[in-house]
Structures are given as structure tokens and as C-alpha cells.
């Protein structure tokens, strides 16, 4: 879109997409809490609760490459709408089926939520550059992270209230309504996405046979920086799994009288930090016109890991809140830097790259959940979180050192070849 009116329209569409993402995120975090409690209530088995989460994560992991291919061939807003409608339909089905049929529906819901969330995220991130252009991507990603953080805060805060006061069925119907609202917000964007803007199946870099490059060909096409960033993000997901699994255990140890209050303080401070990072990145990009680079991504990842480990060292609340806030801010800024960099690749590679990146992150998070849950049976939270985030910190430091060396070598090369 060339003129100011077109730019205003594209930014208006972005606001609709970011708001839909926030509403969908609210639903995701609401059901993350409510469904976990419901599975435990229905089955009475912590193992079944773990299996439910594992199915959800596995569905997200397996959907990543498929989501990339779908986003390369179809109008992405309609894919996002489809994912929302599937989640809403399965939640309504869970409420309306007889009690004896709820267990199989639950596992179908786990698949729908895991696959749908991955498809939604891949389609959205691949679509943003076609909406706002490369010069406003950092601002766009900052807005998305800001509103998503609001959705996370409200989702966490409302889950206990809805389940405790109104019951599981009302909570699930409210959850379904959030996905329907998200789909309605996306509908004008989908209608304004012309057929001419629909991504072609293959353009640009292809193999000799005329087909898109395979998975390793895709990584070679964007090497070395982008695959290295994906590896850092996967290690980061592994580390993040440790504090997600370890937080309930740690909260019970440090606040046995009110572990839920402690956990709520921790997650609220983290989400608030992510919100602040989104606002700051968007304003900085608007003022300077420059987006984040690979170096701040690596630094932010290191800072996030260090802060999360510090948060499990028994800090008093007055110090825990700013440390967790800093962890959330670093996490949010790393995500903005990472997403913006992946969006800068060739348009024909972008959807499949996001599909692969999503699968890598889901694999890191799922593996981290399994490993850290097993370790927490034998060790207290601090060494488990320290080891997992220590791995993420080590990978990020290797990335930083390699990146600095590559930049130094690139600067010296012209001088060496000069006569």
C-alpha cells in the first residue's frame, strides 16, 4: 500500500491482528490453568494431567512444519480464523458431551489447542511483513508483544476466579467466547487480504527439480545467523520449561501458607516486564527507525536466564519483583528481536522457516518439561532451574562470541583484499 491512507489501513489491520492475538492469548492462558485443574479433577491422576500436557505439546511440535507449508499456500488470516474456530468448537463440545465421553474429547481438545496455537502463531508472524512492511516490523512486533502480555496477565488472573466462583463449564464457555471474538476481529483483515497478496507456493530459491528446498536446504539458505538464533531460542525454551515446572514446587516451599499468591506475584511481574519491553521496543523503533539486531538478542537471552535463576535463590519479595520484571523484559525484547530477524528473510522462505522455528521451540520446551519434572523429584528447584537456564546461557554466550567474531572478520576482509 503506497499512500498514507493505505499505511493507516495496514496499521489498523495490524491493531486488529494484535488485539485478536491478545484475546486468543487470554483464552490460551485461561485454559492452561483451567484445563490442568479439570483434568486432575476428572481423572484424579497427576499422570493423566501430565499426559494431557504432553499431547498438547506434541501436537504443537508436529504441526510446526505443516503450519509452515499451509502458511506458504493459503491466506494466513483465514488459517488463524480456522484455528480459533476449531478451539472454540472443541471447548463447547467438552461442555456439552455426556460425562462419560469427556476423557476422549479432552485429548482431542489437547490436539486442537496445541496444533491451533502453532498454526496461529506461524501464520501471524509470516503475515506481518506483508501488512506493515520491513521498516515498521519492530514496532509491529512490539505492539503484538505488548497486547499479548496484557492477555497473559488477564488470563492468569481470571482463571482461578472463573473456576472457583463459576465452575469449569462457565470457564470453558468464556474461553470458547474468546476464540470466537478473536476470529471475528480477524475477519475484516482476511476480507481485505486480496488474492494477489496470497503467498505463492514456491518462488525465489528452488531446487533443480523446481520445488522448494527441503528442511536442510531451508536452513542453508538462511545460514549462519538465523539457524544459530533458532538454536538459541530452542535452548531458551528448554530453560523456560524449568521455571514453569519448578514454580509451583518453589512457591510451596517458600510460601506454604499461600503458594498461589507467590506464583501469581511471580507470573504477574514477568508478564509486566514483557509488556514494558514491547512498549519500549515499539517506541524506540518509531523514534530511531532502527530495529533490534542479533547482538541485543543474545544479550537479552543471557540476561533473562540469569534473572530467572536469581528469582529462585530465595529473594525477598521486594527484590524478587524487580528481578522477575527484568527477566520478563529481557524475554520480551529477545522475542521481538528474534521474530523481527526471522521476518527479514525472503518472503518465499519465511512461512516454512517460522514453521521449523516453532517446531524447534516446542521440542525444546517439551524436552525441558520432561527432564526438569524428573529432576524435581530428586533435587530442589534452584539447581534444576540453574542447570536448565545455565544451558540456555551457555548457548547464548557461544552465539554472541561467534557473532562478534563473524562481524570482526567481515570488517577486516575489505581491508585485507585492498591493494
TrEMBL record:
Coiled coil: none
KW Cell membrane (keyword) present: yes
Transmembrane region(s): 16-39, 51-71, 78-99, 105-124, 145-166, 172-190, 221-241, 261-282, 294-311, 317-334, 354-376, 382-402
CDD domains reported for this sequence: MFS_MefA_like
Entry superkingdom: Bacteria
GO molecular function: transmembrane transporter activity
InterPro entries: MFS (IPR011701), MFS_trans_sf (IPR036259)
GO cellular component assignments: plasma membrane
Keyword Transmembrane helix recorded: yes
Subcellular location: Cell membrane
UniProt keywords, alphabetically: Cell membrane, Membrane, Transmembrane, Transmembrane helix
Membrane topology reported for the UniProt record: Multi-pass membrane protein
Pfam assignment, any one: MFS_1
PANTHER family reported in the protein's UniProt record: INTEGRAL MEMBRANE EFFLUX PROTEIN-RELATED, STAPHYLOFERRIN A TRANSPORTER
Name of the protein described by the UniProt record: Predicted arabinose efflux permease, MFS family
Phylogenetic placement of the source organism: Bacteria, Bacillati, Actinomycetota, Actinomycetes, Micromonosporales
Amino acid at each position: 500500500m503506497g499512500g498514507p491512507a493505505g499505511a493507516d489501513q495496514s496499521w489498523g489491520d495490524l491493531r486488529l491482528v494484535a488485539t485478536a492475538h491478545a484475546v486468543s492469548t487470554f483464552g490460551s492462558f485461561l485454559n492452561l490453568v483451567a484445563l490442568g485443574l479439570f483434568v486432575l479433577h476428572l481423572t484424579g491422576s497427576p499422570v493423566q494431567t501430565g499426559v494431557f500436557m504432553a499431547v498438547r505439546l506434541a501436537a504443537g511440535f508436529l504441526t510446526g512444519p505443516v503450519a509452515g507449508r499451509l502458511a506458504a499456500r493459503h491466506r494466513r488470516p483465514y488459517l488463524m480464523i480456522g484455528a480459533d474456530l476449531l478451539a472454540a468448537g472443541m471447548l463447547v463440545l467438552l461442555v456439552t458431551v455426556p460425562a462419560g465421553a469427556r476423557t476422549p474429547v479432552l485429548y482431542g481438545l489437547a490436539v486442537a489447542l496445541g496444533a491451533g496455537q502453532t498454526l496461529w502463531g506461524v501464520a501471524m508472524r509470516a503475515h506481518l511483513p506483508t501488512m506493515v512492511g520491513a521498516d515498521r516490523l519492530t514496532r509491529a512486533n512490539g505492539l503484538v508483544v505488548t497486547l499479548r502480555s496484557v492477555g497473559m496477565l488477564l488470563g492468569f488472573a481470571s482463571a482461578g476466579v472463573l473456576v472457583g466462583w463459576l465452575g469449569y463449564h462457565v470457564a470453558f464457555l468464556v474461553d470458547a467466547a474468546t476464540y470466537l471474538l478473536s476470529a471475528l476481529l480477524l475477519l475484516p483483515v482476511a476480507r481485505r487480504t486480496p488474492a494477489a497478496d496470497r503467498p505463492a507456493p514456491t518462488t525465489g530459491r528452488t531446487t533443480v527439480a523446481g520445488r522448494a528446498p527441503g528442511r536442510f536446504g531451508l536452513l542453508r539458505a538462511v545460514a549462519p545467523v538465523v539457524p544459530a538464533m533458532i538454536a538459541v531460542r530452542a535452548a531458551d525454551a528448554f530453560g523456560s520449561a524449568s521455571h514453569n515446572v519448578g514454580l509451583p514446587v518453589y512457591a510451596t516451599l517458600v510460601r506454604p501458607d499461600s503458594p498461589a499468591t507467590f506464583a501469581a506475584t511471580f507470573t504477574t511481574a514477568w508478564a509486566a516486564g514483557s509488556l514494558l519491553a514491547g512498549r519500549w521496543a515499539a517506541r524506540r523503533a518509531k523514534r530511531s527507525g532502527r530495529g533490534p539486531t542479533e547482538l541485543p538478542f543474545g544479550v537479552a537471552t543471557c540476561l533473562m536466564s540469569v534473572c530467572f535463576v536469581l528469582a529462585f535463590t530465595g529473594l525477598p519479595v521486594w527484590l524478587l519483583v524487580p528481578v522477575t520484571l527484568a527477566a520478563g523484559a529481557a524475554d520480551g525484547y529477545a522475542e521481538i528481536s528474534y521474530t523481527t530477524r526471522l521476518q527479514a528473510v525472503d518472503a518465499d522462505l519465511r512461512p516454512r522457516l517460522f514453521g521449523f522455528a516453532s517446531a524447534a521451540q516446542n521440542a525444546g520446551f517439551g524436552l525441558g518439561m520432561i527432564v526438569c519434572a524428573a529432576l524435581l523429584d530428586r533435587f530442589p528447584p534452584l539447581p534444576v532451574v540453574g542447570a536448565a537456564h545455565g544451558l540456555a546461557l551457555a548457548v547464548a554466550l557461544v552465539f554472541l562470541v561467534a557473532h562478534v567474531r563473524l562481524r570482526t572478520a567481515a570488517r577486516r576482509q575489505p581491508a585485507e583484499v585492498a591493494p
